[in-house]
Specification:
Strand content of chain B: 15-25%
Keywords (chain B): ATP-binding, Nucleotide-binding, Transport
Strand content of chain A: under 5%
CATH superfamily of chain A: MetI-like
Pfam families (chain B): ABC_tran
Shape of chain A: flat
Largest sheet of chain A: none
Low-confidence stretches of chain A: none
Shape of chain B: globular
Organism (chain B): Schleiferilactobacillus harbinensis DSM 16991
CATH class of chain B: Alpha Beta
GO molecular function (chain B): ATP binding; ATP hydrolysis activity
Largest interface: A-B, 20 and 27 residues
Strand order of the largest sheet of chain B: 6-7-8-3-9
Mean pLDDT of chain B: 90
Order of helices and strands of chain A: HHHHHHHH
CATH class of chain A: Mainly Alpha
CATH superfamily of chain B: P-loop containing nucleotide triphosphate hydrolases
Radius of gyration of chain B: 17 Å
Oligomer: heterodimer
Number of strands of chain B: 9
Helix content of chain B: 25-40%
Protein name (chain B): Glutamine ABC transporter, ATP-binding protein
CATH topology of chain A: MetI-like fold
Number of helices of chain A: 8
């Protein structure tokens, strides 16, 4: 093992990791609330809104994220809508992941018995209080495993930004591997991805344990 | 005094109540009995604002109320649901506090004191920090009663209170309801369990199941 070589490529890999983490965190922070809002809209009972949101979810889940990235960055300028590379990445990732989260939260909302809403109503809780105090805590517990899967996928999907020439972790490894004709950078890239997903898996398990205080 | 005046209710073509009148005097314990599907629970849901009334009036102490559309009128008739519908993620005390603290904006310390008193009266003082899944069916029902009483309702309604209980627990809840009756609480019991009604011996009205809508009481 050539430790000097590994040390020499570490700055590039760390910089790539930083970009990957920025994409990951930004997507997560924005797409989960958006997914919750969309899931509420899907259950709103207002047909036009449901139709629009169903079409959005269908479009986002029915086409590859890679294609959405290309469309937003290269396709939209044809109709005079321009995004810089990172904005295009954030837009595509947030819209795509919010659609998946919306479906997960919709399932979680469907799992709450009508009786819980009835109980909240006779206790004079407002709809917002009912959602915040009664519904959301129960939905969060029920969706943690499914959300966890998407979170792990998001770490790996972040590598798709190579198509827009963004220097993420995988791209940093690819450049080093091609330049130096060795697989060592890609092995290191794999280790970093494994470490990130291991950390997330541990975090998600802890969250599941936290919510195990009731049945 | 809770009055139902000329209540009409239909689901599609099926008329459940036609010009239905009912008066529950203060301190009265009224049993509403009848077979499944007769409209007993519908009546309870209309009184508690969970189901809209097609036409007619609900009056509490002579004042019209509309708990279905007006949140200020909700909670005036407290409900103990058939399956209790406790909030599973909240402990017993938090279940009892949620109405007073969040809906009535009662000071938390005062609400906690009142809730603890209620739990003690109902024999649940040692279970305040337990979660619903840790309690027996009878204990869960008592929490549901405490939760409803915490809002100080004018009437306490029970929907099929014995359906989730074994015979020993059924006898316990009958004693509890009789105790509340002695204290002068106005209560409404919807049930098809006649032996249970025999234990309490309240005033009883029967609703039928045929095509004839309920017209009296």
């Amino acid at each position: 093992m050539n430790w000097h070589y590994i040390v020499s490529i570490l700055p590039a890999l760390l910089s790539g990791t930083q970009t990957t983490l920025i994409i990951f965190i930004t997507t997560l922070v924005l797409s989960i609330p958006l997914g919750i809002v969309v899931s509420i809209g899907l259950r709103s009972g207002w047909r036009p809104l449901q139709w629009v949101l169903n079409a959005y979810v269908w479009l986002m889940r029915g086409t590859p994220l890679l294609l959405q990235l290309i469309f937003i960055f290269y396709g939209l300028p044809m109709v005079s809508i321009y995004f810089d590379r990172m904005s295009a990445v954030f837009l595509a990732f947030v819209l795509n992941y919010a659609a998946y989260f919306a479906e997960i939260f919709r399932g979680g909302l469907q799992g709450i018995p009508q009786g819980q809403y009835d109980a909240a109503k006779v206790l004079k809780l407002t709809p917002l209080q009912t959602f915040r105090l009664v519904v959301l805590p129960q939905v969060v517990k029920s969706v943690i495993p499914a959300v966890g899967n998407e979170v792990i996928n998001l770490v790996k999907d972040s590598s798709l930004v190579y198509v827009l020439g963004i220097g993420d972790l995988l791209r940093a490894g690819n450049i080093a591997a091609a330049r130096d004709v060795t697989l060592i950078p890609l092995v290191l890239v794999g280790i970093v991805y494994l470490a990130l997903t291991a950390l997330l898996t541990w975090g998600l398990r802890s969250l599941e344990k936290h919510y195990a205080y009731y049945r | 005094m809770l009055e139902l005046k000329n209540i009409n209710k239909a689901f599609g073509n099926r008329v459940i109540y036609r010009n239905f009148n009912l008066t529950i005097q203060d301190g009265d314990t009224l049993g509403i009995v009848g077979p499944s599907g007769a409209g007993k629970t519908t009546l309870l849901r209309m009184i508690t604002g969970l189901e809209p009334i097609d036409s007619g009036e609900l009056l509490l102490n002579g004042t019209p109320i509309d708990p279905f559309r007006n949140r200020a009128d909700a909670g005036k008739v407290g409900v103990v649901f058939q399956d209790f519908q406790l909030f599973p993620h909240l402990d017993v005390l938090a279940n009892v506090l949620i109405g007073p603290v969040y809906a009535q904006h009662t000071d938390r310390a005062a609400a906690t004191q009142a809730a603890e008193k209620l739990l003690t009266q109902l024999g649940l003082a040692d279970h305040a920090r337990d979660y619903p899944y840790q309690l027996s069916g009878g204990q869960q029902q008592r929490v549901a009663i405490a939760r409803a009483l915490a809002l100080q309702p004018a009437v306490l309604a029970y929907d099929e209170p014995t359906s989730a209980l074994d015979p020993a627990m059924t006898a316990d809840v009958a004693q509890l309801i009789k105790g509340f009756a002695r204290q002068g609480m106005t209560q409404l019991i919807v049930t098809h369990d006649m032996p249970f009604i025999d234990q309490i011996q309240p005033r009883v009205i029967t609703v039928g199941r045929d095509d004839d809508a309920q017209v009296s009481a």
